[in-house]
Records
---
Amino acid sequence: MTPDDRIAITDLISLHGHLCDDGELDRLHEVFADDVVYDVSALGAAPLHGLAALKEAAEALGDANPVGHHVTNVILTEVAEGEVHARSKAIGIRADGTAGSAVYQDVVKRGSQGWRIVHRAIQPRRKPLGAR
């Protein structure tokens, strides 16, 4: 993985929050593969399959969506040529000022359109010091 790849992948992960917070759900293809698996089972819902399902879920949440998606502490590990595992911390701010913390576990692959997230698992953080 080159330094340019690291920058591109980190920017990709960061772009997700900007697109969601701006309501630009029609641009999610710039972050996720068409056949992305977005695993929200740790939040009590079934995994979402594909961009359309991702967009529909966000629209269904409506005003319950966070007003701010923030990503920090991005760690990238190359596992094969053109495939990277990314782990990052996510902070969501709701309209009422409450916040939530999670970990994104991403599989990112390079394809014809560049790097895209092909699988994301969200693990909410509810207890300190690694307790689940």
---
Amino acid sequence: MARQWIRKCSLIVGDSGGNGLELSEFRIRFEVCKYPMQTPGFARIRIYNLSDDTANRIQKEFTKIVLKAGYEDESDFGVIFTGNVKQWRKGRENPVDTYLDVMAADGDQAYNYAVVNKTLAAGHTHKDTLQAISEAFKKYGVTLGHVADLGQTVFPRSRPMFGMARDYLRVLARSTGTFWTIQDEKIQIVKTNEALPGKAFVLNSDTGLIGMPEQTMGGIIARCLLNPNIRINGQVKIDQKSVQQALRGPTIEDGAKAPQLPGIAADGMYKVMYETFIGDTRGPPWYCDLVLQSMNPADNPIPAPLTNGLTNEP
């Protein structure tokens, strides 16, 4: 088990040509939000006390950011956000401290502008469809990451494709029982009731769990120390005895009309559905806020928004 102490943070701002600046020596505050649905994740980052020349140069020249965070132990340090700059903002927090804010989004240019214009020949498969979609996304810097099994269906007729790549990806996901998302400029396609491959991260007080996870209408919520190894669609394991059961209000009806809560997993296995990284290199915050869903489909009575981003039509 790694020791989660001595924080480490790296913020690189750069351009499309590979030029950039490392700003980790400055005070940095950040909030990174990641989702399992098609909506691009985003980051809000505040950099303190840059010189005017440096701040002006950053605003004029740089359009991409890479944020890494964790601890001195390299196994607990890694990328938590990569994306395109949407807005810079200069300001003053008090008479002494100035700041430069950046709002960035993950893969939003591909999401908003990638267009498929191709005809697939008779005998094509779902993999061929994905390849055509991937080629459109790649023009905007988004490549394929993990792709679940899409099946062996062979289509007897040719298929003309012209339109937004994201729309074709939604149709593909619906047809194959998967859902997709963009994470750190890579497309993830995961089966609805499965997670990314790999061993589940055991989350307890020894590995950074803070307080007691709680059952809510939106899922099982938990807070832990910031850890880049916990990823969207990845698995975590929490002792089911540690999860606090939801308390229904006195006005909630019993029986069939009562709203169904996401279940507490008997085996403690959960999939990460939403994730927020919160950090301050000169302050107390250094957390992951998680929304989790049981890996057992029977525990999940509500298919959206927790289990199926495909219901979010354009």
